[in-house]
Each structure stands twice: as C-alpha cells, then as structure tokens.
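I'm stuck. Please check this protein.
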Amino acid sequence: MKILLKAALLLQLLSFVSEVSAAHYYRNVTITGTGIYGSGSNSILFVDFSGSKAGMAACATTQRLAISSTAPQYKEMVSIAFTAYVKQDSKVDILVNESCVHWSNAEDMLGIKMGTMPW
C-alpha cells in the first residue's frame, strides 16, 4: 500500500513539473490584433502579435493566443492587451502555456506586461 501511495505522489509531482516547464515567454512583441468572442456563458480574449512565434504549441494552428473569462486574471489581461494594442507598444512580454485549453486552436495566455519592467 505504501508503494502505491508513493507511486501516486510521484506521478502527481511529475505532472506538476511538466505543466510548469511548458510555460514560456514571447518577449518584446507588438500586439497586432485583439478581440473578444462570446462562447456560451464565457468570453474569450484573442491576441495576435508580431515577432517570433517559434515554440508555439502545435495545437495553436491560428498562431494566436487566447484566455477565457473563467481565468482569474482575465479582466486585467483584457485591459493590458487592449492598451498595448492601442499604444502599439513594442515592449510587450506575454507568458503562455504550451496548451490550447481556453480555445482549441490558440495558445493559452497566462500573463502579459508592457514597458520595461521585470517579471
């Protein structure tokens, strides 16, 4: 029984490590498009940007980013994304997870910042 418990804990730890390592940044990009789409009772923020999209998740066939209104940081990310778009700020950093949970063909956004500020 202890072996099964240890194995279960190890599997849980490994799944956490793989989720954390899947996150990466797009740095010093310019947001070229952003919009909101209604999906049932949720809203989805979509963001497109100029700059290298190397390392984008294979599921992100549209090569854009998305976050659902079910995410706790959604409202703040909408505000920053639209502000960065209007300003055409070229110092935008976007933290993403290499997954497409919020929208099936767009990479999941985790965070966004603009200007010169460390994470």
Observations:
- The CA atoms of residues 55 and 98 lie 8 Å apart.
- The first strand starts at residue 23 and ends at 39.
- The two ends are 43 Å apart (CA to CA).
- Residues 2-21 form the longest helix (20 residues).
